[in-house]
């Protein structure tokens, strides 16, 4: 059975909330709030798939709520349907220009509301799928570099806002070119896929993030993790790849596939940008390779 979509209804009129809930609750999981402020507070802790938003409300009106939603990267893609007793074309035009996906006038027809909500959720589902496909590496099926950049940027802002540690790992399969030259590119692809899945399997926290960085390189973003913890996690990743025991007779440091890892953390006060954090991890990776490979170096 498919998971029900979460729909948030924002309306100061209790009767409208009850009718809309009754209209939609058979197909969707419905949440009710009576003001714009309550809506913005609610979505900070609960992810919703669609918002039905009244325009005329005490305090913050629907237009102002929509502007706030569009300003926040975490909520800007949530489809919004305005619902209002005002049938003015100017009001409808203003709502659509601000980014609303649809406009329903009161009194509304329940069957029309159901269809319009269903249509917007279908569009969102397709857009979400396209976004996911654009952010996944086609070979390894883990997040790609674009996804990594977005994740790191988001976690960097959170780190600065909350003053919590943030660590980054850069990883490289040791002597991968020699592996490709010896076993062929198809075997090389299989090796990349196996390593990627082994790395991803070690992520036990929901916030841990591993991506393909490019070629035979991988990266990890670890929010709330200091340098010591990141180093421990890096060794866990290194051991997971060793445990695959993928034969590599052309390697100059082992008889099987290994990885080298560089670690960097915001505990290093000289790091002032997210790019500098990556560069510091890259220096650690370089040191790990120079030191004999199949090891972790923390900066």
Short description:
Its EC number is 2.7.7.65. The chain has 299 residues and is α/β, with parallel strands linked by helices.
Describe this structure in words.
With 299 residues, the chain is an alpha/beta fold. It folds into 2 domains: 6-134, Response regulator (Rossmann fold, 3-Layer(aba) Sandwich), CATH 3.40.50.2300; 145-298, Reverse transcriptase/Diguanylate cyclase domain (Alpha-Beta Plaits, 2-Layer Sandwich), CATH 3.30.70. It has 10 helices and 10 strands. The strands form 2 sheets. It has a 5-stranded parallel β-sheet with strand order 2-1-3-4-5, sandwiched between helices. Strands 7-8-6-9-10 form a 5-stranded mixed β-sheet, with helices on both faces. Strand 4, helix 4 (89-98) and strand 5 (102-105) form a beta-alpha-beta unit. Helix 1 (14-24) crosses helix 5 and helix 8 crosses helix 9. The radius of gyration is 25 Å and the shape is elongated. This is diguanylate cyclase. Keywords: Phosphoprotein.
List the helices and strands and how they pair.
Elements: E1 6-10, H1 14-24, E2 29-33, H2 36-42, E3 50-54, H3 62-71, E4 80-84, H4 89-98, E5 102-105, H5 110-134, H6 145-162, E6 166-173, H7 176-183, H8 185-200, E7 209-214, E8 217-223, H9 227-244, E9 259-265, H10 274-290, E10 296-298
Question: What is the CATH class name of the largest domain?
Answer: Alpha Beta
* Count of folded domains: 2
Q: Count every helix, treating DSSP H or I runs of 4 or more residues as helices.
A: 10
Shape: elongated
Mean pLDDT: 94
Task: Output the radius of gyration.
Answer: 25 Å
Please give the number of β-strands: 10
């Amino acid at each position: 059975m498919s998971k029900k979509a979460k729909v948030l209804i924002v309306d100061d009129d209790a009767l409208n909330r009850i009718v809309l809930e009754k209209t939609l609750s058979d197909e969707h999981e419905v949440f009710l709030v009576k003001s714009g402020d309550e809506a913005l507070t609610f979505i900070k802790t609960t992810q919703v798939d669609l918002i039905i938003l009244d325009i005329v409300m005490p305090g913050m009106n629907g237009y102002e709520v929509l502007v706030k939603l569009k300003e926040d990267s975490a909520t800007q893609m949530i489809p919004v349907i305005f619902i209002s007793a005002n049938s003015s074309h100017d009001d409808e035009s203003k709502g659509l220009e601000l980014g609303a996906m649809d406009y329903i006038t009161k009194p509304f027809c329940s069957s029309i509301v159901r269809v319009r909500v269903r249509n917007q959720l279908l569009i969102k589902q397709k857009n979400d799928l396209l976004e996911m496909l654009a952010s996944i590496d086609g070979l390894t099926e883990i997040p790609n570099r674009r996804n990594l950049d977005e994740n790191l940027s988001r976690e960097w802002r959170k780190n600065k806002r909350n003053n919590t540690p943030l660590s980054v790992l850069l990883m490289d399969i040791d002597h991968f070119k020699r592996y490709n030259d010896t076993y062929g590119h198809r075997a090389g692809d299989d090796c990349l896929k196996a390593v990627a899945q082994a790395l991803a399997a070690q992520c036990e926290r929901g916030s841990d993030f591993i991506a393909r960085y490019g070629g035979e390189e991988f990266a990890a973003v670890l929010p709330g993790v200091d340098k010591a913890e990141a180093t421990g996690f890096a060794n866990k990743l290194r051991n997971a790849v060793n445990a695959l025991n993928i034969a590599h007779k052309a390697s100059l440091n082992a008889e099987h596939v290994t990885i080298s890892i560089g670690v960097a953390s915001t505990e290093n006060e000289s790091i002032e940008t997210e790019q500098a954090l990556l560069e510091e991890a890259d220096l650690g990776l370089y040191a790990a390779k120079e030191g004999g490979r199949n090891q972790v170096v923390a900066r």
